[in-house]
Design brief:
GMP Synthetase, Chain A, domain 3, 5-stranded mixed sheet, 26 strands
Length: 529
Amino acid sequence: MSGPSVRNVADLLTRTVARHSDRPALVTDTTTTTWAEVDAAVSRFASGLQRRGVGVGDPVALVLPTSEEFVVAYLGTLRAGGVAVPLNTEYTAGELARLVGRTGAVAVVAGAPGLVAVRQAVAGIADALTDDPGPEVRPVPWVVVTGDAMQDEVAYADVAADDGLPVPHERGGEDVAVMLFTSGSSADPRAALLSHRALVSNLDQLMAIEPAPVTSDDVMLAVLPLFHVYGLNTVLGQAIVSGASMVLAPRFDAEGTLRTIVEHGVTIVPAAPPMLVAWSEREDVAESLARVRYLASGAAPLPVAVIEHLTETTGVPIHQGYGLTEAAPVVSTTLMSPTLKPGSVGRPLSGTEVMLVDESGEPVDEGDPGEVVVRGPNLFSGYWPGDVEGPDPDGWWRTGDVAYVDADGDLFLVDRIKDLVIVNGFNVYPREVEEVLLEHPAIAQAAVLPVPDRRTGEAVKAVVAPEPGATVTEQEVHDFCRTRLARFKRPTYVDVVESLPRTATGKIAKGRLRDLAVREADKRRAGLT
């Protein structure tokens, strides 16, 4: 556990180096970097940022895949006193321009994939921010690239080769460490402000579990994107705190990733449901996971049938958890439960309180479902801009998720109040996609909703109606979205109808569309369509 002396997340690395300096920290197919070497690289990068003008509290955007460069840039930004802004490498140039500009990032660290979009985003940042909320003065950020730098760019290698030491600062504790974009309760994606206190507290809570979920003898697979809170704090954070080794895999491939697990002796596999679904269909999964202590599933629901099949086939336990970006991220886990129950997300971490309430905020009767309300030291400070909609004065935060607790005290999620689609653990807000669809000259009406998907948990479905006298095809809709939305936000399914059903007040009746979509998804799973 961190202890009172740890104020800044980067201090966790300093403490780990004191205990495990020569142990492997980051492992790839061609390189092995010790914790001492990571620490030295982080200090060089932090100094390089400071020498180039990154000041205390300045945001630095990270558009990087899961890699050593991400780890060094993330921790280096925090050690320099900056604020890390991890962004999805699949964002389009327009999305990046809005998000980078909105945070007032002074620098962007980028590499393939995503570099082309970053360059376009920086060039068009002023046009993208018309009437957009954010700081009054928004600088045009300078770009650090992991490959060959163009004019007006800085090579990552030059920043990482700085020969000085970072200038000391007092940033930590309640100061913001990370800005992670999520949808919150608004249609407009906003950044959840995660303090050093929130991130360190969640790691303390995880490491307080007995027996310890991760030790210095473990080898963790890091294939989840580090720009997502699951990979950032649950995977990378736990590796730093425990001194475990992290095997870096920039992308998931069902066969190749299993081979990586075998070759590097991986003992813990943090996973998203699509990974486990893909492995459940492979005959070599049991042999490949022979040395794995447990699989950890999070970010989205995992079908019970997959849990039962994989557990029976491999004998490896699958632990599930419930978390949110705003909770840094873990709220509950089956690692806290004496018995694994398929479908359960376990019990709250020590120090985290969970209450189920009705619409008026009153606790529900025992056994009844209610909205999950959370309180704990791991909660975020609010959303940017303005630190708004964070925990209430008593420290409680309404998640928008609906769950029930069984007689043993285990939590089961049943629904969501917020009208989000969660694709591979990433939030997609329907209104954002609908607004893009309505930019199409032939589309008059659009509704976006979640549908069950075996591989991604949920998928985006769009139902569109054309303008009078116009026509639009499913393929045209897919082509239109391809250059305007990140891949995970694009509709997987498109229906073209004459008109959308509406309620008596004129609103689109999404409930009727959702019921129809679920029935169609059930038919797809049964092979009837």
